[in-house]
């Protein structure tokens, strides 16, 4: 039903395709259009067979001190996928620049994204607010999350995560926060509560994360 409603929508104007459904928690992610790496790729979300926005309709908090993360990019992949904040229902699409699809380069010794990358729903980097720490306004997007657990998470999956720390980046004169987190069902989650625990249990990962964001463009 959800796929048929989207395919009939005049606002979306997507080519007909057989949707592939992924079930994660109580949410369903459906791929329409082409696969990743094509301009028509779209991943839409539903709850109880009703279309929803992964940005506006999925709750931020899943439990006390636990947050929902929407996975946009699986670890080790290269396509720059993100929630489209301007399209109806805010699907995940592949970012473009000057009309070309964007991919992150493999910068030695890294392969693509070195963690599962996504966003915190119902968050917003305010483009009218100057942050006291960075001296810059927000970039207008949801707050980004890097999830450092062991599993490679599927695009469109929604996971409960524990926040461990945060990195403030300045990109094009705008503040771009990156929240460091781990899935609550990861084997190491119970032992991790802050950045010191990450350094102790995953030595070198903090430095690799800063290095990756410094060099990936």
Automatic annotation (TrEMBL):
Keywords: Hydrolase. It comes from the Eukaryota. Its EC number is 3.6.1.1. This is V-ATPase V0 sector subunit c.
């Amino acid at each position: 039903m959800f796929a048929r409603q989207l395919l009939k929508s005049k606002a979306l104007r997507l080519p007909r395709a057989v949707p592939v459904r992924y079930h994660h928690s109580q949410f369903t992610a459906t791929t329409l259009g082409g696969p990743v790496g094509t301009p028509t790729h779209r991943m839409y979300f539903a709850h109880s067979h009703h279309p929803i926005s992964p940005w506006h309709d999925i709750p931020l908090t899943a439990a006390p001190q636990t947050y929902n993360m929407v996975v946009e990019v699986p670890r080790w992949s290269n396509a720059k996928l993100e929630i489209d904040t301007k399209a109806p229902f805010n699907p995940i699409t592949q970012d473009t620049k000057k009309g070309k699809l964007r991919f992150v380069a493999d910068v030695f010794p890294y392969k693509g994204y070195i963690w599962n990358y996504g966003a915190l729903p119902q968050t917003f980097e305010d483009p009218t607010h100057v942050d006291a720490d960075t001296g810059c306004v927000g970039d207008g997007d949801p707050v980004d999350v890097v999830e450092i657990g062991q599993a490679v998470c599927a695009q469109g999956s929604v996971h409960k995560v524990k926040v461990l720390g945060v990195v403030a980046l300045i990109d094009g004169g705008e503040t771009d926060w990156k929240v460091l987190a781990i899935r609550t069902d990861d084997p190491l989650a119970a032992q991790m509560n802050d950045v010191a625990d990450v350094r102790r249990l995953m030595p070198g990962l903090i430095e690799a994360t800063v290095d990756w964001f410094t060099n990936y463009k």
